[in-house]
Amino acid sequence: MALKNSIQEALKEALKRQQKVEVATLRMLLSEIKNAEIAQRKPADDERVLEVIAREAKRRRESIEAFKQGNRSDLVSQEEAELAVLMSYLPQQMGREEIMQLARQAVDEVGAKGPNDKGRVMAKLMPQLKGRADGKEVSDVVTELLASCPPGS
Fold first, then answer.
1. What are the structural domains of the chain?
2. 66-80, pLDDT tens digit by residue?
3. C-alpha span between 25 and 45 (Å, rounded)
4. How many CB atoms lie within 10 A of CB 134?
């Protein structure tokens, strides 16, 4: 509950400072948290709140890509501003090197031999990286590692 409370306090502060983007983003986030609580039928703990924030951040990243392809720089800047607000509530994101190191460990632990073992590696790796790394980047790193595995090794 502490994270949800800090978001509510941040909303109050943003209202006082008249930060329109921050207010809109935090209201949307609190609404999504409330929806998650309704779906769960219990108050959201910090872990569930982080899942909601990560999901919303992922949506913003996807929207940014789509708007860039559509040449909508006005919407790109709006989504980037919202993403910045959301990212301030997520734990520090891991760099590619850190992800690569953990992915190598997961490949060794699972005994992955090639690209067909990607699902097993991802299943082992994602719980460790939850909220700290973008799933698409983790997937890219694992694909890269498994592609470099010699066939039949």
1. 2-87 (1.10.1510.10), 96-147 (1.10.10.410)
2. 999 999 999 999 999
3. 20
4. 16
